[in-house]
Every structure is written in C-alpha cells, then in structure tokens.
C-alpha cells in the first residue's frame, strides 16, 4: 500500500490509500483513524482494515491539489543517522564510522510534501540532504538484526535540511538539524511488501532547481536498515510510528567547490526509486 496523510475537504486530518496515480481512498471516512501513527499502533489488524477499506473504494479523493501532511504526525522518536555513506563521510573529512552516528530530529523541524521549507534569517548556509526514512510498525527493544526488518512498516523520503553554521559550531549537531520547518518528509509511506528487503538497491537523488546534486544507491549505506533498527533498539524501545532517517550520500552543498546553499525561490526535489518524489520550495524566515 501507499498511504498518504492529508487534510480533507472539511479541513481535518485524514489518511488515504493511493489506488492509482490520480486518486486515493479516504480511509478515515471509512472509519479508520485520522493519522498513520494511530493506524500503525493497530498492528496487523490496522493493515488488514486499511486493505479492506481500500478495496471497497468508498470515498475516493483526487490527489491533484491535495494538501499533504507528513506521513507520521508525532513519532515518539525520530532518530537520524550521520555519515552513513562512505563517499559522504569522505567529502565531510570524516573517517567512515565504526558504529552508527545517531542524533535526534524533532517533528517541528519538518514540513510535508509541497509545503515550503524555511531558511532561517540567521543562516546563509542552508543545505539539502536526500535521505531514506524507515518507519517502525512493530514495537521492540534489543531487536536482533536478523529479525529487525520485521519491525519496519514501510519507507518514505526525507530532506534533512541542515543549518551548517549551527551544526558545525560544536561536536553536537542537534541545533543545526532542528531549526523549525527546515526539513521535509513525504509524500507517502510505502509499505515494505512493495519494495526490496530493507529498501536496498534503490536510486536516491536530490535535484536543486532541476540540477542533480546527489545521485547514489541505498545499497551504498554503511549501515543498512536492519543494522540501524537493531542499533537504535539497544538504547530505546522502538514504537509504531517512530522513524529512522538513514543518512545522506555525497554531493551536499557544504562539500562542493564553490559551495551551494539553498535560498528563497529555490525548488528542492528528493526522489527515491519506487518510493516517490518529495518537492519543496524554499522561503526566507521572518
């Protein structure tokens, strides 16, 4: 399934299942929850109910003109991974990490597909980062790598907009990764049955104003999705709706000569094969 969080015609949050390129079935109108967070917490029963509602073709809504919401509204945890592609570690002048580099990202720091991302007024170094997102569907702590993918409900796309001046002020990256509305997440959640195991072998690209800036393959991640799920679960119990933002490949603006920064009026597109295209314009903060 391809699940979309959106605002319905009554101005209320809803979720839908895409049935073709142009339409979705409104699952909320069929009696299911108004957020994917809640649907994921229902486990297999939620998945089955969503499939049945999609097949009944109840309230069909056009996708054109849809106001998207981020796929997951309020994850209990959003864990991001740094330096997870060898070429990106090299361009950033870091040795490839021996263990996953894990930090947090807050829901206030991202917007949905087709919503503007914000370059804050205190920064001129607003960078793009194309990333795969793994969305947790089954809770667990101390999850073995061998069974880690059983805990993943699906995948999505993330633009981890980074405020480089603030990220690089200290060894802790948190502030530079969490400016309000500096990143984006979407457009939809694609369930694992529609993709290769671990979403491995998918082309991942970033285009800025139509120019390709990043072009790689998810198989090139240093730590694959199973490894990341297992590693994160050593510290915290992963819950349905939690997300793991799995790292960006080489080609970021910081590492270019001359450097490239996003500015007001730019259009940034992140595309992952088989998952979708996440598009956002850039605006200046107040």
From TrEMBL:
Q: Which Pfam families match?
A: FAA_hydrolase
Which keywords does UniProt give here?
Hydrolase, Metal-binding
Query: What is an annotated GO biological process for this record, any one?
Result: carboxylic acid metabolic process
Domain annotation Fumarylacetoacetase-like C-terminal: ranges: 79-282
Tell me which domain of life the UniProt entry assigns to the organism this sequence originates from: Bacteria
Please give the Gene Ontology molecular function terms for this protein.
hydrolase activity; isomerase activity; metal ion binding
Kindly give the InterPro entries that the UniProt entry links to this protein. Answer: FAH (IPR051121), Fumarylacetoacetase-like_C (IPR011234), Fumarylacetoacetase_C_sf (IPR036663)
> What is its cofactor?
Mg(2+)
Please verify whether the record's keywords include Hydrolase. yes
Family stated for the protein in its record: Belongs to the FAH family.
From the Swiss-Prot or TrEMBL record, give the protein name. Answer: 5-oxopent-3-ene-1,2,5-tricarboxylate decarboxylase
């Amino acid at each position: 399934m391809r699940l979309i969080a959106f605002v319905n015609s009554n101005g209320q949050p809803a979720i839908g299942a895409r049935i073709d390129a142009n339409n979705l079935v409104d699952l909320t109108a069929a009696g299911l929850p108004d957020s994917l967070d809640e649907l994921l917490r229902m486990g297999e029963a939620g998945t089955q109910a969503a499939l049945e509602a999609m097949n009944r073709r109840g309230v069909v809504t056009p996708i054109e003109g849809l106001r998207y919401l981020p796929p997951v509204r309020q994850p209990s945890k959003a864990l991001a991974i740094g330096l997870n592609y060898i070429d990106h570690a090299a361009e950033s002048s870091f040795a490839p990490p021996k263990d996953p580099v894990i930090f947090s990202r807050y829901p206030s720091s991202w917007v949905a597909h087709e919503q503007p991302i914000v370059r804050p007024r205190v920064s001129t170094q607003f960078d793009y980062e194309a990333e795969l997102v793994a969305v947790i569907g089954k809770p667990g702590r101390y999850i073995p790598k061998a069974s880690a993918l059983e805990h993943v409900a699906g995948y999505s796309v993330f633009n981890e907009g980074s405020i480089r001046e603030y990220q690089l002020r200290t060894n802790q990256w948190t502030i530079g990764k969490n400016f309000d509305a500096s990143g984006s997440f979407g457009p939809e959640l694609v369930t694992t049955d529609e993709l290769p195991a671990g979403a491995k072998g998918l082309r991942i690209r970033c285009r800025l104003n139509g120019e390709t800036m990043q072009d790689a393959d998810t198989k090139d991640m240093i730590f694959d999705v199973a490894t990341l799920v297992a590693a994160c679960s050593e510290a915290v119990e992963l819950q349905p709706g939690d997300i793991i933002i799995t790292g960006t490949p080489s080609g970021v603006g910081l590492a270019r000569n001359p450097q490239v920064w996003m500015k007001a009026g730019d259009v940034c597109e992140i595309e992952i094969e088989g998952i979708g295209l996440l598009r956002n314009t850039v605006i200046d903060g107040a």
